[in-house]
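The records we work with from here on pair a chain with its fold. These numbers are not coordinates but entries in a learned vocabulary of local backbone shapes. To see the layout at work, look at the sequence and tokens printed below:
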Amino acid sequence: MDTIAKGATAGMTLLLNMIAMLIVFVALVHLVNAVLGLLPMLGGEPVTLQRILGLVMAPVCWLIGIPWAQAVTAGSLMGIKTVLNELIAYLEMAKLPTDAIDPRSRLIMLYAMCGFANFGSVGIMIGGLTVMAPERRSAGAAERRSDVISLGMKSIVSGTLATLLIGAIVGLLN
């Protein structure tokens, strides 16, 4: 019974930690976007983290098989997926006009966006690992805790590369 109680407590702590991390990371993105919104508009639209990352991701989307005329739109979806999460990116893709991206590009993007490589997931990973491995968060283990935190950007980059590769393969087969 003691093990069951400890497991239930750890599970509830992990769940609450995950919810809190998602809320905090989405709020931080909103805060940064509000600050970036003070900058002059570019192309008639406000500057946001998603838009910046979308412009960076446009050439990458072109490399996986999206036509250049649609690469900025696809890059924008990848930016939304990375900064916020894949659910919001899928909802934004559903809102796109039918002529924004062709069916082949839409299929590639369905696979390329299918992953948890985003900032919220990094927060969940850090919070979850500190719950599951409490010795990593103790005051004497600061350097070991930084090991967990250093995995964040590596996991975003590797997860994004993995889903982009899957999208590219789908593009080759289609």
The chain has a mean pLDDT of 86. The two ends are 54 Å apart (CA to CA). The CA atoms of residues 64 and 169 lie 8 Å apart.
